[in-house]
Write a structure and sequence with these properties.
The complex is a heterodimer of chains A (274) and B (328). In chain A, 84% of the residues lie in helices and 0% in strands. By secondary structure, chain A is an all-alpha fold. Chain A has one domain. In chain A, helix 2 packs antiparallel against helix 3, helix 3 crosses helix 8 and helix 3 crosses helix 11. With 328 residues, chain B is an alpha/beta fold. Chain B has 2 domains: 219 residues, P-loop containing nucleotide triphosphate hydrolases (Rossmann fold), CATH 3.40.50; 65 residues, 2-Layer Sandwich (Alpha-Beta Plaits). Chain B is 31% helix and 26% strand. In chain B, strand 11 and strand 12 form a beta hairpin. Classes of the chains: A mainly alpha (274), B alpha/beta (328). At the A-B interface, helix 1 and helix 5 of A face helix 2 of B.
């Protein structure tokens, strides 16, 4: 356990020093503040709940950004260290490969958590001073922060799986970008095309499960359909009737998307010799 | 190729508390048809220093990885400090220090932070970090980031890291590449201190001359095999290489050749015919010298060279010698 924390601590201090933490925090904070204050202006007069609108906009942006940040900080976690020669030395220390992987995972997720908590949390505090929003919206906002960290963790785990499976850093970078495009951009377009082309026969039984097959869509469902007052603004009201999963089931799906790639990364890493 | 060096029978009963640090028996690591390491039999007593010599690709690093337990033998057996390294408990690794070839660290951390990280993993006392930085001559740069370090400074940090926790076995893979002569001397000084305290040290190199007389034993590896193993003097005797006597001959070589021609194995005249190199069997050395000195003015000066590690290496590893010579 001590070895895991030592490695996690080093990963965090590495992140602090090479400005990943700072960069990600500023990016997320900038977005959150921009959406908070731009978002309230046009809707405030209509008497809707601005916080719910902020949650919808933030969630939509997080789907693009969080996987990208997560992949960027972690794609070379294993192959990069093997290439530079750090891993060879580390493996001669009294530490197992699993401890190295878990330590790095905790460290990288902590970096994402710090950035999200400060970035989004800061915007939340600013909104609280304006005293807008009801209990349910705040619950949705808290869910947004927690699930954003989980989404990041899922992509960190996926990046480790890639990083443990390839021999060169460049390959890991390429596959990571491809993975981001596939899950965040292409998947939904393909799914939509499929729905249109199938003229309805695919819908009711299969469609919800196809959404679960993509961590970004799980996150989308969780944040845009789980809370009534958010759902109104999300344009997902129709979708949520088809794909009705309990929030806990969606969180379980995200945890699945963290656990399975991490287990695969561990398996790949254990099999490799360096 | 000459006979393989005398091999000490491996003591497989070694229990780690006794005097044997490493025992290899028929040890091999094959990658398909490629035999990176093959048929190694040797025993290394605790407290000895071993120079592991061979060209790149001779199997030095593979052998080190086997000893470290990073890879498993595909044939034969290996015991390190009494246990099989690939199956040893994690605790076993606390007794071993390793300096890899081209050691790499995280550039953003300072030297001190880097050492603290490794000390925590090895559960070495925290105060050792400052002591070790002092010892390898890096105290002045302890709070500078590693990315500002020169190659030599990184190598020193690598050594400091390997010394954490006072290891019983120290493996140094090409540790002196990139070091200036003064640093090299300090390096060997530290190695000897450790050895005096009972640690076993294995140091690999393809630069042969720098290791001469620095270690108790020499192992010469060639294409995965152990071509020779033993004290340098023993290898010198086994190789049975001639002594080289260089004679300054102001009057030309004829008189000298006439006097000692029957004793020398080979004679090479210098380009200006004012010097002569004589290759003489060790047993004929004194007689030859006596005859040379009796020649009076025909011999102005003479110089005797015993075969060095370079020549011995070339002898045991004829195909590889050229490649190594090019790199050195």
């Amino acid at each position: 356990m001590n070895a895991i924390l030592t490695i996690a601590g080093k990963e965090i201090s590495d992140g602090m020093r090479n400005r990943w933490v700072l960069g990600a925090t500023l990016l997320l904070a900038g977005l959150a503040f921009a959406l908070t204050f731009l978002g309230s202006a046009p809707t405030g007069e209509l008497g809707v709940k601005p916080l719910a609108v902020v949650v919808v906009s933030l969630a939509s942006l997080t789907i693009f950004l969080m996987p990208l940040i997560a992949l960027l900080i972690s794609y070379d976690a294993i192959v990069g260290e093997v290439e530079r020669g750090c891993m060879l030395l580390l493996l001669t220390y009294p530490v197992t490969r699993r401890q190295i992987l878990l330590g790095k995972f905790i460290g990288h997720v902590a970096i994402l958590a710090i950035a999200t908590l400060i970035g989004y949390g800061g915007a939340g505090v600013a909104m609280a001073f304006g005293d807008k929003g009801d209990a349910q919206s705040w619950q949705a906002f808290a869910t947004l922060i927690a699930s954003s960290i989980l989404l990041g963790a899922a992509f960190v785990a996926l990046a480790y799986w890639i990083s443990a499976s390839v021999r060169e850093r460049g390959t890991a970078a390429g596959i990571s970008i491809g993975l981001w495009l596939a899950f965040v951009v292409i998947y939904d377009v393909l799914l939509m095309g499929l729905l249109v082309a199938s003229k309805g026969w695919i819908s009711d039984q299969v469609f919800p499960w196809l959404l679960l097959a993509n961590p970004a869509d799980v996150y989308r469902l969780l944040n845009l359909t789980a809370f009534d007052n958010v759902r109104q603004f999300s344009g997902m009201a129709g979708l949520s009737e088809q794909a009705h999963f309990a929030p806990l089931a969606l969180i379980a799906a995200l945890l699945f998307w963290i656990g399975v790639p991490l287990a695969l990364a561990n398996w790949k890493f254990a099999r490799s010799e360096s | 190729m000459n006979a393989i060096g005398k091999i000490v029978p491996p003591d497989l009963e070694a229990d780690g508390t006794g005097a044997v640090a490493i025992a290899a028996r028929g040890l091999g690591r094959h990658y398909g048809a490629h035999r990176a390491v093959d048929g190694l039999d040797f025993t290394l007593d605790a407290g000895t220093t071993l120079a592991l010599i061979g060209h790149n690709g001779a199997g030095k690093t593979t052998l080190m990885k086997l000893i470290l337990g990073l890879i498993r033998p595909t044939v034969g057996s290996l015991k390190v400090l009494g246990v099989e390294p690939a199956h040893a408990a994690l605790e076993h690794r606390r007794q071993i220090g390793f300096l890899p070839e081209n050691v790499a660290f995280h550039d953003e951390l300072t030297g001190k932070q880097t050492l603290r990280f490794y000390a925590k993993l090895k559960r070495a006392p925290r105060k050792q970090c400052s002591e070790l930085l002092e010892r390898v001559g890096l105290a002045f740069a302890a709070h500078r980031r590693v990315k500002t370090y020169s190659k030599g400074m990184r190598q020193r940090l690598g050594l400091a890291q390997a010394l954490l926790g006072e290891p019983r076995l120290l493996l140094l893979d090409e540790p002196t590449t990139g070091l200036d002569p003064a640093s090299r001397a300090e390096f060997f000084q530290i190695m000897h201190e450790l050895s005096d305290r009972g640690a076993t040290v294995i140091i690999s190199s393809h630069i042969l001359t720098e290791l001469e007389a620095k270690t108790d034993l020499v192992a010469i590896m060639n294409t995965g095999h152990l071509a020779a193993f033993g004290p340098l003097d023993m290898l010198r005797r086994q190789a049975d290489l001639p002594v080289r006597i260089t004679v300054a001959t102001p009057d030309g070589p004829a008189a000298v050749l006439a006097a000692v021609g029957g004793l020398v194995q080979r004679a090479v005249a210098g380009e200006d015919a004012r010097s002569l190199q004589l290759y003489v069997h060790v047993e004929d050395k004194l007689e030859t010298l006596a005859k040379l000195t009796a020649l009076g003015d025909a011999v102005a000066d003479l110089d005797i060279a015993r075969p060095g590690l370079d020549e011995i290496y070339r002898h045991f590893s004829p195909d590889a010698a050229k490649a190594a010579g090019d790199e050195a």
